[in-house]
Every structure is written in C-alpha cells, then in structure tokens.
Amino acid sequence: MYLHSDWILIPLLLAIVALLLVLMRRTRLGPLLREHIVDRPQRRLFIASVSFFLTFATVRGMVFAITHHIPPFHYVIMDGRHIHHLVFGILILLAVGYCWLCEIGNGSDSSSIFASRLMSLLYGLGAALTLDEFALWLNLKDVYFVREGRSSFDAIILFGALLAISTWGAPLFTAIAKGKTTQNPPQPNP
Description:
By secondary structure, this protein is an all-alpha fold. It has 7 helices and 2 strands; from the N terminus they run αααββαααα.
C-alpha cells in the first residue's frame, strides 16, 4: 500500500505515542513519574495531559503547514471528500472507551502499567484531535478559519484546563472524597 503524504498525520501521531512509551519504559522518566506522582490515576491524568498538549501542538503545526502549502503536509482526501482529523479523534476515543469497558488500561489491579500508559496517551491524543475541530461539531460546516471557529480554541483551552486541574488537584480531590480533610483549617498568621 502506498502511503500518500496526505496521511502523514497518523504515522506522526503514532510515532509520538511510541516515543513517549519508550521514554517512560526505557529511561529514568518512568521511575520518576512513579516516585513523584504516587497516585496511579493522577499519573494517568498527567500522561493524558502531556499527550493532549503534544498532539494539539503537532496538529496546529501541521494545519499551519497545510494552509501555507509547506510539503509534505496536505489535507486527507478520500474520494474527493476532506476527512477532518476529528474523525480520527472520535475513533481513538471510541477505542479507548471500549478498552476501559473491558478493563484494559483503566488502572485496576489487573491492568498493566503499559496498557494504562498507552490508554492515557491515546485518550489525550483522541481528545486533542476531536476538540481541535469543536467548531465543526456546532456548525456542521468547516469554519476553522473564521470567527465561528473560535469555539474550537475555547474548547481546547477549557478541556486542557480541566486536565491540568485534575492532575494538579488530584491529591486534594482524593482527600475530600475520602473525608480526610481537617475540620478546623489553620488560621493565617496576622
């Protein structure tokens, strides 16, 4: 099968996922993550946040290259139809959801660390691909570069903020959920 330059997005994103998995497995990064982010769900949120950010930055760079006619980047076209990257994002999110339903990579005791990392990376990747074209959901037409397209950027910023809040606030939210908060908070010094 001949790989057209139109399809460079998929191998590029898979290469990013593979690189991150190798870095977490074969370098000091994996042990550092486990040492400094002890809670496994918090680690998964962090990994998803990193994947989300890298995917969003990559896609924005590719769209810039496409609109400025910088090879080898082109829109994905099948039978004369432009396939938006949100399609790939939706498919990835469906696959991750199915895996989590099957308890693959969901952080349960029977789930491997590799599967957990992979699902976290794929979730961040799929969310970035999908939310980058959020304006298309609302308008059902390509409004990427007009005023209505602003809602895609708003959705990206809001979702990125949610992931960051979940990552950094996980110890607090866990303590609240388990009822391990102090009844009398310390008073500030005058």
